[in-house]
Amino acid sequence: MIAWNEIRSGQSWPAECNSVIIIGAHVNASPVSSSQFAVNNLTVQMNDGARYRAAIDATRAVVLRAAKARDSKQNDEVNKRGAPKL
């Protein structure tokens, strides 16, 4: 994975930092001149990529199992009903 730091400076991050995912970033800035801004506040939320992906995958698996169980239960209920007599 190419890190932002590597793109900007040509230097790579330590291996333990390669799995970091930036979830969100927010910048509050004020104009200093027509082409420059002074950053007043910078908030960045970062997560460990491997754990974040594992948690998302586990959540998706639970939701998928629940949906399949619901579908199976509905199919069983339909199959238990007698067919209408014509």
Brief characterization of the structure:
With 86 residues, the chain is of the alpha+beta class. The protein has helices at 4-9, 49-80; strands at 20-31, 37-48. The protein has one domain.
Contiguous uncertain segments of 5+ residues:
none
The SSE string, one letter per element, is: HEEH
What's the average pLDDT?
A: 78
Largest sheet strand order? 1-2
Broad shape? elongated
Given helix and strand content, the structural type is alpha+beta
Helix content: 40-55%
Indicate how many domains the architecture comprises: 1
Radius of gyration: 25 Å
Largest sheet: 2 strands, antiparallel
The number of strands is 2
Distance between the termini: 65 Å
Number of helices: 2
Strand content: 25-35%
Walk me through what this model shows.
This protein has 86 residues and is an alpha+beta fold. The protein has one domain. It is built from two helices and two strands. It has a two-stranded antiparallel ribbon. Strand 1 and strand 2 form a beta hairpin. The N and C termini lie far apart (65 Å). The mean pLDDT is 78.
List the helices and strands and how they pair.
Layout (H helix, E strand, L loop, with lengths): L3 H6 L10 E12 L5 E12 H32 L6
Antiparallel strand pairs: 1-2
